[in-house]
Design a protein that fits this description.
This protein is an alpha/beta fold and about 250 residues long. It has one domain: Rossmann fold. The chain is about 40% helix and about 15% strand. The protein has a six-stranded parallel β-sheet with strand order 2-1-3-4-5-8, sandwiched between helices. A two-stranded parallel sheet has the order 6-10. Strand 4, helix 4 (about 105-120) and strand 5 form a beta-alpha-beta unit. The protein is globular and about 50 Å long. The mean pLDDT is about 95.
């Protein structure tokens, strides 16, 4: 099967491409480096020629609600319109657990993405997953040294490669609407994970936990980002991932 991967050069996207290739399928990477602009739609029609399914793992690192809503809305509309013209039979989008319970600006963008996908003409599946193990490193990288100001957050992180594997299983199956939520094997505190990451890297930084204000902060500290029902669970723990990342010098 010829499957387009929007955001195929990112952390999850690369893993999706690898999984598709290993399974004998033909992945098509949709990214600016491959001549496709997902925001404007330039290059999409040509890239989706003969494509039967699309996996959207595109992303924009922003905390702003307006930028997130604009990005995810535009990308989803462009993918669905071009997919409809090309005869795409299945559109799979990766979303995030808890976006309807945590009033975060970025999450508003993911909600817009889901809304556009549900209203599109291409049969669809949406998978909500919890934060990736890599999210901990991304959080640390955003903080200027020597401090590490980390929001108090309860999460159930999952390995990006396990998310990719599940996305491939979904895209090769019939469309199912909202799929059961995918989460990692253990509930963790983000502050604790940052400390463990710093220790593994032998890096000295002062970790400063902060509680975000209002309902958003309360939801993050509580169960707002944890799965609410039964669904698939990853097997790789954060410590497993950390050991693997340290071994390869990441």
């Amino acid at each position: 099967m010829r499957v387009a991967v929007a955001g195929g050069t990112g952390v999850v996207g690369r893993a999706v491409v690898e999984e598709l290739t290993a399974a004998g399928h033909d992945p098509v990477v949709l990214a600016r480096s491959r001549g496709v602009d997902l925001v404007s739609g330039a290059g999409l029609d040509a890239a989706l020629d003969s494509v039967e399914a699309v996996v959207d793992v595109s992303n924009k690192m922003t905390l702003g609600r307006g930028k997130a809503v604009s990005f995810f809305g535009s990308v989803s509309r462009n993918l669905l319109h071009a997919g409809s013209r090309a005869g795409v039979r299945h559109h799979v989008a990766l979303s995030i657990v808890g976006i309807d319970r945590v009033g975060h600006g970025y999450y508003r963008g993911k909600l817009r993405q889901e809304e556009v996908v549900r209203g599109g003409q291409v049969p669809w599946t949406v998978l909500r997953a919890t934060q990736f193990h890599e999210f901990v490193l991304q959080t640390l990288q955003q903080m200027p040294k020597p401090l590490a100001v980390v929001p108090r957050m309860t999460i159930q992180p999952v390995a990006a490669r396990e998310v990719a594997r599940h996305l491939v299983e979904l895209v090769l199956a019939p469309p199912r609407g909202m799929a059961p939520e995918l989460a990692g094997p253990q509930v963790e505190q983000l502050v604790d994970l940052v400390r463990r990451l710093l220790a593994a890297r032998h890096e000295r930084r002062l970790v400063v936990p902060v509680s975000l204000p209002g309902a958003t902060g309360a939801a993050m500290r509580g169960n707002g980002q944890l799965p609410t029902g039964h669904g698939p669970r990853g097997t790789e723990t954060f410590d497993d991932w950390l050991a693997r990342a340290v071994a390869r010098g990441a």
